[in-house]
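ok so dumb question maybe but i'm new to this and my supervisor (M.) told me to 'just get the structure for Aldo/keto reductase' and walked off. so i did the thing. is this what she meant?? sequence i used:
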Amino acid sequence: MQYKRLVTEGQIPVLGLGTWLIGGGQEPDYTDDKNAISTIKNAIHLGYTHIDTAEMYGGGHTEELVGKAIQDFSRKEIFVTTKVRNTKLRYNDVLQSVKESLHRLQTNYIDLLLIHAPSNTIPISETLRAFDSLVEAKLVKYIGVSNFQVDQLIEAQQHTKNKIVANQIEYSLLTRNTGRYAENKDMETKTIPYCQQNNIIIIAERPIERGLLLKSHPLLDKLEVKYNKTKAQIAINWLISKQNVVTIPKSTNEKRLMENLGALGWKMDKEDTKLLDEAQFVS
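this is what came out, is it supposed to look like this??
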C-alpha cells in the first residue's frame, strides 16, 4: 500500500475501502451481515487497511460490521475513519456519538474523526471544542471534515487546537466543481488548491462514480491500451497522482477490489495526466 503524510508523524493509505450501503443505507439491513463482514475482512487481507465509515451508514450498523471485521487484525495496522452526522454536532452530542461509535467499532480509539457535513445552526466552535477534548482524551488521533468548502474550512481552522488533517469531498474525473449528491462546489478550482497549500488531505469519494466512468470514452479507451490498465485503474491513478489526494472506492466484489489495487505502483506520463485534467466526461 502507498501512503500520504497527514502530519509530521502520521500517514494515511492512498486507497481505502468505502462502506456506504454495506449494512444498509439510512436504516440498518441485517440480511447480509455474514457476507458483509467477510467482504471487509477480505479487503483488509488484500491490503485495504483504511476503512471509511460513518455513524449515519446503516443507522450505525455499518460501524458494527466494521467492528466485527477488524477484530481479526492488529488494530495498529488498521486506519479507521468515521464521521459524526451534522445533526449531532453539539458538544455533548459529539461526545455521546463518538462513545457509541467506539462501542460499535469495538475499539478504544478512532484514527480519523470527521464532521460529516457542515451545520447551518450549530456553531463550529462548539463542535470542534468537543473534537479537541476527544483528541486530548486519546479517543481520537486525528480530526477532519467532510463536504466543507474553503470558507467553512477557514472558519473551522480558527476554532481548534488541533490540525484539521483531511476534508472528504466528491471528486473524480466526472465530478470536478459541482457535487452530484451533496452541496460540494468549486472542488477543483478552490477547495483542493486550498487544501494542498495548507497540507490538508483530500479524501475523494466515488472515484469511478458507481461505474459511470467505466463507459467508453475516447481518451480512456486510448489510455487503457497504452498502459494496459482498466478505466477504473486509470481513474483512481489519476486521483492519487495528485498532491494530497487519496480515495475510498466502495466495492463488495473481490475481483473489483483487486482491480482497484492495480491503480497503485505506476504513473501515467505527464501529458496524459494533463489530457485527463482537461477532458470533459459526462454521465
